[in-house]
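testing teh design pipeline on a random one, pls ignore if ur not involved
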């Protein structure tokens, strides 16, 4: 896997993934940024949410569950001193589907956390991770 970061100006950077996609990152105005892109630490949090959502949907689909929607909200806290690593992350899964079995949802989230999600494994080195989930009938 490869990636490249290129400085634009001020505190703005463009990140290019090895798969050919690009994203703009920037800092807050008080840090010299223009607020034109997501913050780098927000990008890490988005990566965690995307990684686990990917896993959960795939696991439920493989289990022949009829999932129609998956959202993951993340709430995170960081250390007060440098380096300001993540110290706590709460993932709130909101799933919709037809007759989704709660046991299947719980299993998918647990498998993502304990086996498949590389981002969770990395975050867990510095952060306490907790999960909440709900299922709504589609």
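output:
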């Amino acid at each position: 896997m490869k990636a490249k970061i290129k400085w634009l100006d001020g505190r703005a950077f463009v990140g290019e993934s090895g798969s050919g996609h690009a994203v703009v990152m920037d800092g807050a105005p008080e840090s010299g940024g223009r607020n034109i892109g997501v913050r780098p630490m927000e990008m890490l949090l988005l990566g965690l949410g995307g990684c686990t959502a990917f896993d959960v949907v795939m696991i439920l689909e493989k289990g022949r569950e009829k999932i129609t929607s998956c959202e993951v909200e993340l709430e995170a806290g960081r250390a007060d001193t440098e380096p300001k690593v993540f110290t706590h992350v709460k993932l709130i899964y909101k799933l919709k589907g037809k007759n989704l079995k709660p046991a299947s949802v719980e299993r998918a989230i647990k498998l993502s956390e304990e086996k498949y999600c590389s981002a969770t494994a990395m975050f867990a080195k510095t952060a306490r991770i907790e999960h909440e989930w709900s299922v709504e009938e589609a």
